[in-house]
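Pipeline run #58 for the internal structure catalog. This entry was flagged by the ingest filter as a single-chain record with no existing model, so it goes straight to prediction. Upstream metadata was stripped on purpose; only the residue string is passed forward. Reviewer on rotation: M.T. Logging verbosity set to normal.
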Amino acid sequence: MTSSESHSGPYVSQRLFGAVYLLEPEYSREEIARDVKNMAESGFNLITLWPVANSWLVEDPAAFVFDDTLRFLDLCHSHGMKVLMQLIGQNPAQEYAPDCLLRDELLIRSSPHNLYVNYNHPEVRQMVLRYFDACVGALKDHPAVFGWDLFNETNFRNEGKHATACYQAWLEKRYGTIGKLNGRWQRRLGSFGQVDPEWRLMCYSAWSSLLPAVEYETFQAANLTEICREWCAYVRRLDPGHPVIIDGTAAQLLQPSLTERNTDEFDMAGVCDIYGGTFYPKSWGMALGNKPWELMLYYGIPRAAAERAGKPYFISELQTHTQSLLTPGSEISPQELRLFIWGALAAGGDAIQLWRWRPFLRGCQSSGRGLTSLDGVPGERAHEVAAIVKSLQRHAARLEGSRPVPPDVRILLGYRSRLFFDAFRYWGPSAQPAAVCGWHRVFTALGVAVEAGSIEHLDEEYLKTPVIVLPALISLDEEQVRWLEAYVRNGGCLVADARLNAVDSWGNVRKEGPPGCILSKVFGVVETDVGPASTFRWEEVELDASFMTQRVRVSPGAKVLAADPLAFPMVISHRYSLGQTLYFACMPGMEWKENPPAGLAELLRSHLPLAAEHVVKKPESTIVRWHRGPEGEIAYVMNFGTGDALVQFAPRGGCSARELMSGDDVPSEGLSVPPAGVRLVEWRAGT
């Protein structure tokens, strides 16, 4: 990313906290004034507003007016609150695409998630820019404006003629000549204009190469990123004084499919000034309150994307209550909301925006969401949120200067490698996310600082990570391979699953055997065959390998730590120059996502160079996240369990631990945390 693509202003000098507020035509001026007052009295300092244009006030359905929006901004300003203007994301008809302007050729009728307007069509592009002109021109000078939430829940998939033309141009830029494409794809095309995405999954195409399908999905993500890049640049030109924000539908790399939303978060975070995500831990069948280790990964992937891009990280939407009128199981108690909010803060959120202040009045989410009753009176969840904000304000000097510590363990993901994994599985629901979740769960159980990262965005900061894990990364490019070799050579500890680097970034197998010439030397193994599901014992721990096993030849100097009943090596350690490696001839994270065996976390600890001061004895349902500031470290401790949790921290010579909220010293026998309890532990010099 060039400097011209990023705004230079400081956006986050204090913790930003608030909710999304939807202007509704049914709300009277008195109601809106009351709502703004209640939000201010809850301690909020940032409100996200949608819709920005007031369609209910226009006579011409194609016009944009902002009278109610300006009145809302005036109210927020009078209470000392800033407003984030949400431009695109919820309903195109209320935003850039009034129904009266649409024609069939501008629509994509098969597009999911209600994004039915074709951003690749030049007329739609002009609609969007016209909308930006109107909104930014009318509102940018108001003192309450914080910035522009340019695209909320980014997603776009286009398989029409305009997308095909863009795809063909993208391929030409990528390959240079049709001869190079033919060589890689095993085709006999005469020009890029003859590439037809329709046959990418046909047997005669997929049999020869996975590239027609993988490249098309790569393009869909790149297309969305470039659209957002253009929009961000356009709004910056209109208003260089306020930041632009892009929000992903967070943690797409954990979803069963990448082909619906197409958001490559690590690329997307580079085009905006602030990167955000939207989070619904108890919607659409998710119950992440019962899997808090997975909740933290859910928060952590977009945070890793923001961190890698050097951008602030916003929780742009966080579920407050039930999904809709008839969605049992999606309701959220005040205690659950407390844990979800503190978890988001512990994950590194610079801002929290709750979805939403008042429940829906209409539509498929009628009566859903919201911190208030239907008539806008604050309820028990609003009172819980106000108490959290008071705690943040009380300890602002200590908390706002602290950020998540550099990780002890970084789990690397890859968008393109994931596409190859899914292509080999015929694009069904992917098993690869389970491999990621399983590894994350085991390290979270130890309490150590574990974060996500991107194999496609390796940098100097990653080199400082003591332990890096490569879960089910079956495809790497040559630059990534060389980086990983240098990481271990210079003292890093690298952990990998079976079939690492089995194919290169063009989908060609490593005919010398995975993990390839260079990484075989690093890990001390080379694949000789593939085996069936199995079980094995590693020291005293019984492990399953129900997905697949890999038969490997072990190099001299490597040590077999575990083998299956047929004596095939399953866990291999190796010293390489100044570093070390641990190789699994299976994909164990897939098992550990749901059923990590007893003793596994401690076993891994004994073989990996993990920071002793971050290892915590605790129930698995209690989450610990580490932050560091000018005065030392703070542990966020959150008990998602149903009983009291005893949390025992490693002793630190010359330091004593104090619970920040109460001011009490942490007893030597450990800290007791009640169900749904949150504790902040800090260390200070002296005894």
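catalog note: Residues 324 and 636 are 32 Å apart (CA to CA).
catalog note: Residues 211-238 form the longest helix (28 residues).
status: ready for reviewer M.T.
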